[in-house]
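Exercise: predict the fold of this chain.
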Amino acid sequence: MSPSQARDFPAKSYKPVRLLGEQAFSRAAGAPLVGGNTVRILRDAEENFPAWLQAIAGAQHTIFFESYIFANDSVGREFAEALVQRARAGVQVRVLYDWLGSTGGRRMWAALREAGAEVRCFNPPRIDNPLGWLSRDHRKMISVDGRIGFVTGLCLSQRWLGKPDRGKEPWRDTGLQLQGPAVAELEAAFSEIWATSGPPLGPDLLRPVSEMSPMGEVSVRVIASQPNLGGLFRLDHLIAAVARQRLWLTDAYFVGTVAYVQALCAAARDGVDVRLLVPGSSDVPILSPLSRAGYRPLLEAGVRVFEWNGTMLHAKTAVADERWARVGSTNLNVASWLNNWELDVAVEDENFASAMADMYEDDLTRATEIVLAPRNRLRPAAHRRRDWRPRSGSAGRAAAGALSLGSAVGAALTDHRVLGPAEAKLLTFAGVVLLAASLVGMAWPPAVAVPFAIVAAWMGISLLLRALRLVSTQRSTKRRKRKMAAAAAKAGPRVDVDA
């Protein structure tokens, strides 16, 4: 059935299909549909930060705060002071920050701990896990008293406010405010990742969904992604497959897999209005050419691609048809889909989807559409202002770029797919790096051999430590079982007597 035929299909005939769709969404995302909520869009730091501070100031019992970046700058210190004040007032404050994203800030953490807050660092480097640091806590979430929650793409950093005195605009980003039973799902997600860095939260700090009163009529799914589970990865593919009218995507670090690009292309060829809004300039410079290398198949299939003209577009959102929308921390790349801890909220509500679509169209007024020129070359459809160049990034984003670079190099070496002209820069970069490495290796062998030996030794020690730990655990389990068996034998046979 084509999209035009589907629009003319009787609404009552969709009921079984909708029930099947709800089941498919729940299984794909690994998240149930939770009703009875109110949801509010928060645009940029000027709406997000004040709402967060207001909620923190009103906390009476608990504050759960999780952020990939908790910068030691004016923004980070302002929030740290707000959390210190509530901790001193007796509120149970729990803060989880990512080791890679939140460098520095020892005094800030010390002040929070002195006030009574508990602060944990997610996944610092360990000698027994040399590659474990690649998996990051990329979530951005706040929950207060089980009453109000926030899920967002924003982190605590001055970059989201910009530096007007230096001509740097605020970063463009989107978050949402959530009230209702789904807040319990946010807290459950926080509790799960909190337990990976130390003792778990006490049950008295969490409110189950069954005890939450309805606060509205909006149904949502809280999608708490973990490494290698791929809940949102499956859901994004499913949404691309079932969208009938439109699928509008905003992403900060788009490096789509072949399967996802093909899903978007198939939707566009079937008449769905598929659009992709990405940064014109990224805070990870290498990622822009990697993203552009994937434009060609999208454009040829009818997907419309737009690049943001402002400082940095950091939002991760989606709008599908007239009812479904998503806001959160997950980017459309393998690092986010399969490697990180991420948090997103999928909202199934017509009014919310309409508001998200209106915001998307407003964003397009500050973006430039990329089209295929007559000679089949990529070019902007109109003049673009370039007044800013990024200088920083994160390993997670660079990892996504490395995957795309590896895909292009692999395709060139194995000739298993057709390469586009946009990938020429990637192959040039890879070729120059490999030639430089070979020249260094020939001129000074220790420069290559010593780092390799260090990495090999580190990984070897890690594997041995893991093996010793497993053996120790197995022996402890056997001793415990023998003690239990001996105690049971000493107690003698047990006779159950009915009362």
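Check your answer against the key: The first strand starts at residue 34 and ends at 43.
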